[in-house]
Fold this protein.
Amino acid sequence: MPTLLRYAAFTDTPQGGNPAGVMLDAGELSDAQMQAVAAEVGYSETAFLTAAGPGRYRVRYFSPRAEVPFCGHATIASAIALFDRTAETLLRFETSVGEVPVEVFAAADGPVATLTSVAPRVEAAAPDLVADALAALHWRQEELDPALPPRVAFAGAWHLILAVATRARLGDLDYDIEALEKIMLANDLTTVALIWRETQILFHARNPFPVGGVIEDPATGAAAAAFGGYLRALELVATPTSIEIRQGDDMGRPSRLRVEIGAAGGIRVSGRAVQIDIPGDASHRDVRNATHAEFTEGSSA
């Protein structure tokens, strides 16, 4: 069996960020084996890499329950895992949605990786979709921020973007997991990106991910890229610019994502990642995201 690595992305400490599984030599694994590994690891995603030439890798991403087309935090984690072992700084990841270039920059306080997403797309969010999602979230229409209207956005995976007017509303997340999962499956959504704008360049986010078997992501690079495309498409920022997204604070796993928004092309998302050392016991559960089964058990207790 190839070696499984564990990295926390968009953080400089193993106790922060979003943990990802990384397999750098997964070429001989079947789909069923990759899915089984991802389910056992229990993180939002595990990335499976196969070398395809100098600096080039085929990458597949699996959540505990299904394969996903693209995952930002596992991309950042994989790039820094490669850098730690090969010193490669210019990478090309071949994903199911297209090629994703990743650059790794060495710094005195640790490497930083920057991915460039595939071209983003932004579409109207159907009123019924918004209404159903709000009902599942136990939110009200009047709690949304009218300056950041609901949209469905893509930069490798589709996300429903809902922005609220207050930090308190964002902080109070207690949703109907089965209802939201059903809505997301019907609309091909990977996460719901819940946003609060603190300033013109500082945003706070939370991302429910029930379709992956995870209640909430501590950091969601794919959604950050989609949100960058959303801001550009709706002309809510002047380009070129960069913004910061803070995520995971409400979960006790602070994450920091830098999003660079150019006048055209893919969105650049940057962050750090650090290895999580597991001494061969069950301690990795301390840094796992809650899975669907664990949520169900906790709710029924």
